[in-house]
Structure formats: C-alpha cells, structure tokens
Amino acid sequence: MKRNLPRGTAAYCCLSLGFTMLSRSFGFYYLKVFLNLYNVKENWFHLSQVLFMIWNAINDPLFALLQDNTNSFLTRTRREGIFFTAPLFAMSYMIAWLPFGQSDWAVGIHLIAALCIYDTLYTFIGLLSCCLFTELNVCQTDRLLLTRYSTITSLIGSQSIFLLEFSSDSLRDFTAFQATSLGISVVASLLMMYAGLHAHTTYDIEAKVTFPAEETCKDPGTENQESFFRNTVQILREKNFIAFVVTNFFQEFHKAYLSGFTAIFCDHLIPKSQVPVSVRSIFYGLTGTLGGLAVIFGTPLIERLGYFHVIRYNFVWKFFGGLTIFFMGPSSPWLLMFFILLDSSFAIATFSLFNLPLADIADHDKEKYNRRYHISSTVFATNALIVKPSQSLAPMIVVAVLNAYGYEELKAGSLPTYETSILKSVMFQIISIFPILLAVVQYFSWSQFTIRHRIVEQTIDV
Q1: Fewer Cβ neighbours under 10 Å: the N or C end of the chain?
Q2: Range in 5-9, 22-26, 280-284, 395-399 the model is least confident about
Q3: What is the mean pLDDT of residues 340-351?
Q4: 289, 268, 374: which is closest to 28 by C-alpha?
Q5: Is 75 left (phi over 0), alpha (psi -120 to 50) or beta?
Q6: Mean per-residue pLDDT for 172-186?
Q7: Predicted pLDDT at 132
Q8: Confidence band, pLDDT 50/70/90 cuts, at residue 216
Q9: Which of 136, 161, 162, 163 is nearest to 150 (CA)?
C-alpha cells in the first residue's frame, strides 16, 4: 500500500531548504572570515563569544514565552511568524560578510553585532520550525518520513558551501563570496516565505473545521493559560528531558567545533602539495552532505531499530573512530580527511534525528499534564536554553588552546618552525581526542533516555 506524504511536507521542506542554506554556510565560514580575513583580536573574540552565549541563553525562553503566550501578528500562528521574519533572517545572514572597518574595535563590534543579530532571527525561526515539526503531524511514522524528506532538502541546502567555495576560490575572492552570499540569502528568504504561507499545523486545521467563520486560527500557545515558568519547571524535572539535553549539549558542542574549525585545521594539517585546492573544496562540501545521505537512505533502518539505538550506535563509532585515528597519527592526510569526513557526517546525521526525541518529550508532556495543546515552543526553548551555550564554548575553548600554542603568531608568519610543528600536533590531538571524550559522556547520558519506539496514531479529518 502506497504511503501518503505527511501533512505539510512541501512547505516544511522549503523551510528546511532555506534555513539550511543560511545556517550551514554561516556556521562554516564566520570563524574563518573573522579569524583569517578580518583578523579579530583574541580579547574581542572572547568578549563576543561571552556576549553571544548570554544572549543565546536569554532569547530562547524569551521567544518561547512570546510564541506560546501572545497573539501578535508574529506569533498568531507558526507559519505567519516564519513568513514575516524570513526576510529579516536573510538580511541578518549578510551582516557578517559586510566589514564595519579595519580597526580592532570595528572588527570586534562587527563580530558581536553579526553573531547577536543573526542568532536572534535564527532562534526565532528555528523555534517555529521545531514547533511545526511537532505539530504538523502527531504520528511517529509521519514524523520520521518528514525527517527524511526535510533531510533531502537540507542536503540540497548545504550545497551553499559548495557554491561559496567555488565562486570565491576558497575565500581568495571575497567580493565573489559576498555576491554569492547575497544570492543565497534572497533564494532562502523566498523559500521560507513560501513555507510561511502554506505550513498549516493540525491545530490550524482543527480550528478551521470547528470554527469555519473565523478569519484567523490561533496556534496552541496563544490559548495556553498556564504559567510559562511553571511549564518550564515541569519540563526541567523530567528525567528524559535531562538525559536528552546533556546528550544534545555535547552533540551541539561537537557540531559547532566541526563546523567552525574543519577548514582551519585542514588548511594547516593537509599540505596543498598533496591535496589540490579543488579536491579540498569538494571535501569541505561533502562534510555537510554525507550526513544527510545517511539519514535519507537509512530511514528504513531507523524505523526498524528506533532512533534511540541508532543514536547510541553513533556514540560507539565516535569513541572507536577517535581512538583509531589517534593511534594511527597524522602522517596520512588522506586518512585524516576520511576520518574528519566520517566524523562530520555522523555528527550531522545524528543531530538531524534529535527533533524526534524532542517531539516525543513534547507529546509526553502533553499527555502527563493533560494539556489541551502541545507547549512545543517551551519544550524546544528550554532545551536550547541549556544546549546553545555550547555553540560559544566550543570556539572559545579551541581558540584559547590554539592561541596558547602560537596560532596568532602563525597567522602573522612569525612562529618558528619547531613551535609550528607543536601547534599542528595540538590541532591533530583536538581532532582525535574530542570525539573520544564526547562519546563517553554522551553514551552514558543517552542511556538514561527511556521514551523509545513511541508510536502515536492520531488524525484530524477534514
């Protein structure tokens, strides 16, 4: 029997495509641009990351409070919020690629503004996207299919890295990089606005059937009369939620480190004489591609085994993969590239599945407290409140370690050969040891998650 597409698939996939085009390329390039092209100083870099971490922690619960408890034109429905803020998100993406000036303070202020403004819109639309995932369909099978189809479009969206790599010759032509970024931002904005017009949730449909005369439909949060803070405390006391956020914190840490430093490490550890620039550009593009392919073609396996076991197997691979490359050493650049490619791919593939347990947590919360609607924004925002600081901690820790071994001097060309060798050895150790440490923590935290193989069959007839 042919399986129908989950509700809202086309609209949600357009949202995933546009969102990924911006988020994947921003995460991949912003560190390299600010560290190597704008030459941001370490004190400004750390200040920007601290401010970013604080704002990152504040804006998620703030936007969840707005989205689940207000009825303005931005929060009336999930899709309307996406429609009106998508162009702003696209504009915030461009801020990082338009220099404020060459002085130390101008570059520092530029980094702070770029991070905070971008993250504001990223968080607002990201929360809405996560809520749509939970509320478009309440059937677990449909959610898994939606994950598969949205991963296909996200895979296409990650090719924005390919476009930027080849158009700019790996950032050597920054003007071409800026022009390509502008084109990407326009296309992404249009795609997300399409989703904002057509991504109707089950609650939209339910309201139209029950109250056909109403001109607008309220999303669940706008009729939620419970205290936002009470809901948040209830979520934080859940054992499954705690197990998930600990796992997710280190997964986000791992993904942020890979996204920001893969190009930097490979530029220094993989000689250009052994790996041509064109091959290197393809490699960078593949780091954001293979993980999506793993999810797309692995969906039947995920459905059969359950996402819990698939995610846990990834932590086993991460541990033994890191251990293997550590003992084999950095002597073979091709082997090192292969490990980094696998590490990035599995990290992205695993992260792509994390909406499934969060949606299950939202379902469990709704059932346990007998709520009329999901409080999806609150669940996802509470997760982000704990997890998002890892996005700042990862670059802060890595940059501090690199600068302790002379990375600033290396960029200036004044680091002695012997110390350069030590710095490269440190880079290799970060590449191999980070996965080992993260895998150990994640394996044990994820083992405490007990919501497994939940299938919720519920439909709304229209």
Answers
A1: N
A2: 5-9
A3: 90
A4: 289
A5: alpha
A6: 94
A7: 82
A8: very low
A9: 136
Identity (one letter) of the amino acid at 256? A
Length of the chain as a residue count: 462
Which residue has tokens 């996965």?
435
Distance, CA of 261 to CA of 245 (rounded, Å): 24
Angle of helix 389-404 relative to helix 417-446, nearest 10 degrees, comes to 150
Q: Minimal CA–CA distance to 405: which of 382, 384, 376, 430?
A: 430
Torsional sign, CA 254, 259, 263, 264: negative
Give the Cβ contact number of residue 206 at 10 Å.
16
- Over its C-alpha atoms, the chain yields an Rg (Å, rounded) of 22
**193-197, 354-358, 410-414 — which is least confidently predicted?**
410-414
Residue 171 in this model has a pLDDT that exceeds 90: no
Say which residue the tokens 């890191």 belong to: 322
Residue with tokens 């597409």: 5
Residue with tokens 């347990």: 357
Query: Which amino acid is residue 40, in one-letter code?
Result: V
Structure tokens at 52: 């970013």
Query: Which of these, 375, 81, 365, lies nearest to 226 by C-alpha position?
Result: 375
Tokens of 325: 């490359």
Task: Give CA–CA dist 253/195, Å, rounded.
Answer: 29
- The DSSP H or E segment spanning 68 is helix 42-69
The model's pLDDT over 357-395, given as tens digits with 9 standing for 90+, comes to 988 898 888 888 887 777 777 888 888 888 888 888 888
C-alpha–C-alpha distance, residues 37 and 166, integer Å: 18
